[in-house]
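Comment thread on ticket #2218

A.B. wrote:
> Attaching the input chain for the structure job we discussed in standup.
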Amino acid sequence: MQKRLTKSQNKILAGVLGGIANYFDLDPAWVRIIGAALILFTGVFPGVALYIIAAMVMPEPGQSAPKAEKHTVDYQTGRPNTMNGDFTKSDDQNPDSTEKKDDHVK
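C.D. wrote:
> Ran it. Output below, let me know if you need it in another format.
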């Protein structure tokens, strides 16, 4: 089974630093001390903002992350999504097209 980054069950605030410690098999106390020191010494706002973002993004233990959805409509144009897995548009591969790339070179 693949190792996943999740929040810790042994939480102090939101379980982010404990989850990071569990993921890397480190002592949670040391990760929390280093994390708190980094937040204090590099400016409180960026560290707190990153912690809040991580708390919102990291799943709880035992939860699975949501799967990506395949959309059938292009959001920008409103047209049907014609992208295949190779990232080439299927409507560009029109078999009725008689135009060739090498016709202009003789």
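A.B. wrote:
> Thanks. Noting for the ticket: The helical segments are 16-23, 28-41, 44-57.
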